[in-house]
Amino acid sequence: MRQKLVAGNWKMNGSKASIKELLNGIKQGIGDVQSAEVAVCPPFVYLGEVEAQLSGTPIVWGAQNLSTEEKGAFTGEVAASMINDFGCKYVIVGHSERRSLYGEDDALVAKKYSVARAAGLKPILCIGETLEEREKGVTNDVVARQIAAVIELEGVAALADGVIAYEPVWAIGTGKTASPEQAQEVHKFIREQIAAQDASVAQKVQILYGGSMNAANAAELLAQEDIDGGLIGGASLKAEDFLTICRAAG
Ligand code: PGA
To answer: What distance in angstroms lies between residue 71's CA and the mean position of ligand 1's atoms?
Structure first.
């Protein structure tokens, strides 16, 4: 049985004060979460505060992005070693907002996956199709291509060191969630694609769903056989909603 993971992607939201309140709320309710792992991914500048508040709790944390460079003259970038320095377990790579707004392509995302893995971080590899791609019927081709980029660079075994998040772009931040059946279908396809190369990696790898998952729809999505958790944006900014999703994960 794969452990479920619920990760909050705070994106570019929060302040010192709001984050303190949010973390307090999550810490207070975490005792009711039985078996799922719970993670939060704040903006870089709040990692120190998150580390201070969550050390010694069962909640883990991660970053939302990383540089492919080790160090040096890369103004505005953050290295894997720095993310490690703040005790992060996870780092999100290839979020659709990074792909669409900051021009990150499959090759760069695969490189980020590789750099994160080499640093001992667990990359959360985001993949997913746009509405146009879904309507054209190429969803499977898109997610297969996005995963293949990592496999080509790192080998299929590398997927066991990370987590995959299937996030249909049309569902992110739109309030329009994939139906449990739609999500399960793609999750199953992803697992089969990996299984074609390595069955044991396919069995092991956690595949999260992301895209308007919330307190009301989480249980149904998380009940699907190949959905191993969630990557939560908007609903991760409210402690009670986030905890409801975490509890639904087990
Ligand atoms: P959302 O974001 O839950 O607000 O749709 C999910 C994500 O982008 O990871």
So the answer is: 30
